[in-house]
Amino acid sequence: MLDLKDITYQPQTGNKKILDDISFNIHENEIILICGKSGSGKTTLLEIISGLITPQKGKITWKNKNITARQRRWISGVVFQFPERYFLGTTIGKELKIGYKSLREKNIEQVLKKVGLSDINLTQPPEKLSGGQQRRLAVAVQLMRNPTILLLDEPTAGLDWSMKNDVKNLVLNLKNKNTIIIVTHEPSLFEGIPSKILVLEQGKIKELMKKNYGG
Ligand SMILES: Nc1ncnc2c1ncn2[C@@H]1O[C@H](COP(=O)(O)OP(=O)(O)OP(=O)(O)O)[C@@H](O)[C@H]1O
């Protein structure tokens, strides 16, 4: 579906390549983990895939045709690190409808069911939810747009063990129905879920594990 070939990125402000000749592909309904030490280029790769930045070198194709950064922004739903810091809505209901005032209540119901938040009260502020529920809400906000690729940057950062499990169960719930890329420091938490694990080291792919983890 999405193919990255020889992607190299060096910011104008920096003197070294953050990503160096990265190639891999993403199939429909695949779940991919991107791991690697801090500073290895994980978030930068996510920004390239989602069209927030453009690589100096390399080719990105979608179903064998070139895809521009603008088109990638259109197909991507990105949940950044600590997404709860960026909630804007005064209520959960308003948060879900930001930018989509015309959406019907039915869309909200469907999306909340997908993320396992069916029984929450939409009139309460997002801050009333637990940490794990807030992460689920952030994913729900993106799913409202029905993105082709969902990108999660460190979705378990700063959560306690049970909330981390909550996020893992959310990903399990979305498996086989959504194409998901997860940047994580905790690959073991998602064991058995991804079909590919990409390990970055200093901007290069150190390891690309393709495995059928039983799913
Ligand atoms: N615009 C920029 N200008 C200069 N250097 C940058 C820029 N953006 C990122 N970097 C550097 O590139 C490297 C990779 O950053 P990136 O955020 O992609 O890594 P990461 O693997 O996601 O790290 P972390 O796990 O800490 O989030 C880091 O050393 C970072 O400081």
UniProtKB/TrEMBL annotation:
Q: Does the keyword Nucleotide-binding apply?
A: yes
Cite a single Pfam family from the UniProt record: ABC_tran
Sorted alphabetically, which InterPro entries does this protein's record hold?
AAA+_ATPase (IPR003593), ABC_transporter-like_ATP-bd (IPR003439), ABC_transporter-like_CS (IPR017871), ABC_transpr_CbiO/EcfA_su (IPR015856), ECF_ABC_transporter_ATP-bd (IPR050095), P-loop_NTPase (IPR027417)
Keyword check for Nucleotide-binding: yes
Alphabetical list of Gene3D superfamilies matching this protein: P-loop containing nucleotide triphosphate hydrolases (3.40.50.300)
Q: Which family does it belong to?
A: Belongs to the ABC transporter superfamily.
Instruction: Return the protein name.
Output: Possible ABC transporter, ATP-binding component
Organism name: Prochlorococcus marinus subsp. pastoris (strain CCMP1986 / NIES-2087 / MED4)
